[in-house]
């Protein structure tokens, strides 16, 4: 069905489904769909491994690893909503999505975005306390307090999304064009699909983005400045190296999360206008890259998790070899 056919006899009422057209102009849709599918599979595999390792090893039931586990859960949620939509469009060639499915996927996606940012803030706080005041670390950050902070971060995310949905009131918006020109369901795509002036509807999301980028991001940066300053003053080179190793892991994760957002904001501020293809490409990178990098970094760069993974793989290898010998 063509774009013009979809607009015939449409009167501007709420729709039952949307058609996603963000990939229509691409010539190698199957290849892109396969790459997104592989990336999504690796995200599920990596985050799932992290969650299983932490959940099954009682020695890892500490604040730092509970926060890593929380981030892995957020990564799965944040990536699943857009990835399943894009895979469906590109590989299954199902370009339509029901109205309420689109709304729910938008909610899950943005909830993952907000809670992901707050998860990184909590992890920065954890490392700052661990390195700056190591003797008081276990008394300041207990597992119970970490659970409370994690629950609070999810509650804040749910409340923010509740206000955002109330601000937009999607059920009352007239959709003259049941077309989503982007690659999955998110807040800007749904607002721009409606027959309204979009500017008023972006006021609250702009405030929310400002809080995340101009509020949380500088606090995270300042925490790592404090960490690096403390590490440089340590007399023990071994402790300093271990601290820097942990710090590098977090900096990589934070950079992958905020870099695409900052690039988009900076390009807009200096007057660079991105076309639809460039916007969609940046959106896909911002969605998939952090969730792909996070489990890899924490599983390979964190000594305890790397050791635990090697033990599990070694046991499986021994078990398989014994079965082969018996056979």
Pick out its properties.
3 strands; 327 residues; 75% helix
Overall spatial form: globular
Distance between the termini: 57 Å
* Structure classification: mainly alpha
Overall mean pLDDT stands at 83
Annotation, overall tally of beta strands: 3
List low-confidence stretches. Answer: 1-12
> Can you summarize the main beta sheet?
3 strands, mixed
Q: Assess the beta-strand content as a share of residues.
A: under 5%
Spatial order of strands in the largest sheet: 2-1-3
Tally the helices: 11
N-to-C SSE string, H for helix and E for strand: HEHHEHHHEHHHHH
Query: What is the percent of helical residues?
Result: over 70%
Characterization of the model:
By secondary structure, the chain is an all-alpha fold. Helix content is 75%, strand content 3%. It has eleven helices and three strands; from the N terminus they run H-E-H-H-E-H-H-H-E-H-H-H-H-H. It has a three-stranded mixed beta sheet with strand order 2-1-3. Helix 3 (63-90) runs parallel beside helix 6, helix 4 runs antiparallel to helix 6 (143-168) and helix 4 (99-132) packs parallel to helix 8. The longest helix is centred in the middle third of the chain and has 34 residues, at 99-132. The protein is globular. The chain starts with a helix and ends with a helix.
């Amino acid at each position: 069905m063509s774009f013009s056919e979809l607009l015939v006899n449409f009167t501007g009422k709420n729709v039952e489904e949307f058609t996603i057209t963000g990939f229509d102009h691409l010539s190698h849709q199957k290849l892109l769909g396969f790459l997104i599918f592989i990336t999504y599979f690796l995200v599920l595999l990596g985050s799932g491994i992290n969650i299983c390792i932490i959940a099954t090893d009682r020695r890892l039931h500490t604040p730092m690893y509970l926060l890593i586990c929380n981030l892995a859960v957020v990564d799965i949620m944040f990536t699943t909503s857009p990835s399943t939509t894009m895979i469906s469009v590109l590989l299954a060639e199902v370009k339509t999505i029901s109205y309420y499915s689109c709304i729910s996927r938008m909610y899950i996606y943005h909830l993952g975005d907000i809670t992901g940012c707050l998860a990184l803030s909590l992890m920065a706080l954890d490392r700052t306390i661990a390195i700056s005041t190591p003797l008081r670390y276990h008394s300041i950050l207990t597992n119970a307090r970490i659970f409370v902070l994690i629950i609070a971060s999810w509650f804040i995310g749910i409340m923010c999304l509740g206000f955002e949905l109330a601000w937009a009131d999607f059920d009352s918006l007239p959709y003259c064009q049941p077309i989503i020109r982007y690659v999955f369901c998110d807040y800007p795509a749904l607002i721009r699909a409606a027959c309204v002036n979009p500017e008023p509807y972006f006021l609250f999301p702009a405030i929310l983005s400002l809080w995340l980028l101009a509020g949380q991001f500088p606090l995270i940066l300042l925490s790592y400045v404090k960490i690096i300053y403390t590490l440089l003053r340590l007399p023990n080179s071994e402790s300093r190296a271990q601290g820097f190793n942990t710090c590098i892991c977090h900096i990589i994760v934070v950079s992958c999360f905020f870099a695409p957002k900052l690039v988009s904001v900076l390009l807009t501020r200096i007057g660079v206008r991105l076309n639809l293809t460039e916007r969609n490409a940046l959106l896909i990178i911002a969605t998939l890259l952090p969730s792909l990098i996070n489990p890899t970094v924490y599983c390979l760069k964190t000594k305890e998790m790397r050791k635990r993974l090697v033990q599990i793989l070694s046991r499986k290898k021994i078990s398989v070899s014994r079965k082969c010998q018996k056979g």
